[in-house]
Amino acid sequence: MKIKNVNIGEGSPKIVVSFSGHNLTEIKRELNVAHENNDKFDIIEIRGDSFEALSREEHIECVQTVISELSHIPILYTYRTIQEGGKGGKSAAEYEALLSEIIELCDIDIIDIEFFKYEDIVDHLVKKAKEKGVTVLLSVHDMEDTPHFEEMMATYQAMIAQGGEILKLAYMPKNGRDVLSVLSAVHDARQAFDKPVVGISMGETGRITRLAGGVFGSCLMYSYLEDSVADGQIDAHLLKQNLTKFD
Ligand SMILES: O=C1C[C@@](O)(C(=O)O)C[C@@H](O)[C@@H]1O
């Protein structure tokens, strides 16, 4: 899958760095850091849940600013709710309204849609994104647990049935065995389905998935330039240096 000049799902995994500034001033600072480090990442993720204190107009302005300053880079928009490890407190209906508006008004390349939202909401957002030519990344997170391998495979499959184009699972492991289950699921899903997949095991125990996940078929590595947004992330400088060891 080629988005701008980035081939997702081919070659080594692509580095995604997240912008988590809370307002335009902080976003502009992150843009400066990104310009100075433009060889360290492939994709920018805008974490819309960081803009909770802003009006809708200001929220959209932050998104548009990133898009216009980094027009050559694929832009992923994510609004991560509290239930799935983010800061977003919107209800399901508000989540749907926000994502619809972002798809409609902003020239984003990829949208993260939380898969375990109500089915009709996911349906509607997937259709809307596809009409606009925005790539659909379906995601599931569990900040406490890791399900069994079979359940992860079933989730990947259900995501495909729902129209997912990039399929992402992120779980908190209790032990090394959980980490291996995530890597096995990523590996088998990559072999079985013709779709880019992502599998993350969070926290210290799961950190190996953020470094060597590509060996097993994970296509995106979530990272950061200045501020980590999730437990276990590896900074983009270190990640970039070390990913080559797995080429
Ligand atoms: O969902 C994910 C993955 C992530 O939570 C991580 O664990 O690295 C980081 C988030 O920014 C992103 O949206």
From TrEMBL:
Key words, A-Z: Amino-acid biosynthesis, Aromatic amino acid biosynthesis, Lyase, Schiff base
Origin superkingdom: Bacteria
Protein residues bound to 3-dehydroquinate: 18, 45-47, 80, 210, 233
Catalytic activity: 3-dehydroquinate = 3-dehydroshikimate + H2O
Signal peptide range in chain numbering: none
Keyword Membrane: no
InterPro entries, A to Z: Aldolase_TIM, DHquinase_I, Type-I_3-dehydroquinase
MF terms (GO), sorted A to Z: 3-dehydroquinate dehydratase activity
Catalytic site positions: 141, 168
EC number: 4.2.1.10
Amino-acid biosynthesis among keywords: yes
GO biological process terms, semicolon-separated: 3,4-dihydroxybenzoate biosynthetic process; amino acid biosynthetic process; aromatic amino acid family biosynthetic process; chorismate biosynthetic process
Pathway annotation from the record: Metabolic intermediate biosynthesis; chorismate biosynthesis; chorismate from D-erythrose 4-phosphate and phosphoenolpyruvate: step 3/7
Described purpose of this protein according to its UniProt entry: Involved in the third step of the chorismate pathway, which leads to the biosynthesis of aromatic amino acids. Catalyzes the cis-dehydration of 3-dehydroquinate (DHQ) and introduces the first double bond of the aromatic ring to yield 3-dehydroshikimate.
Family indicated by similarity: Belongs to the type-I 3-dehydroquinase family.
Subunit architecture: Homodimer.
Protein name, per record: 3-dehydroquinate dehydratase
Species annotation: Aliicoccus persicus
